[in-house]
Q: What sequence folds into this?
């Protein structure tokens, strides 16, 4: 049976190879015609220039004095007066969660930038934040308990 299949394949190959070659005719040459069109040409554009974008910063009051009798106050958004120009995370934290640089410097609070990460677990949302100014590390906020590793978006 194998011999029969091999013979059929050889006969098919032999017959297909013995056909007459096809004559290939060249395509006639036609010169291109120039037609005037109203194609727009590139125009000069202004080179973009980097600009400084103002970024709001938030500063918490350094000295928090409790009132004798607590009164309810409504503050919708943090303002420069209530935050002292520092950056604060969007999370719930207390003064006990904030660490400050122990020394002072002439450029304290200048060029302030912060790194913030939010984490969560079934019990809540937490924040870890470190802020740096022109003198180096300035302050931190840390409410992340040990073992909480799932990252999240801001807490509120």
A:
């Amino acid at each position: 049976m194998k011999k029969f299949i091999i013979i059929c394949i050889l006969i098919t190959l032999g017959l297909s190879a013995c056909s007459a070659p096809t004559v290939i005719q060249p395509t006639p040459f036609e010169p291109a015609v120039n037609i005037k069109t109203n194609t727009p040409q590139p125009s000069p554009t202004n080179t973009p220039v980097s600009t400084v974008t103002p970024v709001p910063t938030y500063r918490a009051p350094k000295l928090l004095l409790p009132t004798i009798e607590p009164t309810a106050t409504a503050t919708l958004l943090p303002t420069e007066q209530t935050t002292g120009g520092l950056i604060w995370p969007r999370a719930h934290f207390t003064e006990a969660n904030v660490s400050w640089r122990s020394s002072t410097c002439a450029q304290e609070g200048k060029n302030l930038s912060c790194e913030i990460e939010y984490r969560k677990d079934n019990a809540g949302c937490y924040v870890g934040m470190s802020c740096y100014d022109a003198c180096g590390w300035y302050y931190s906020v840390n409410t992340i308990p040990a073992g909480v590793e799932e990252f999240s978006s801001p807490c509120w």
Remarks:
- The radius of gyration is 38 Å.
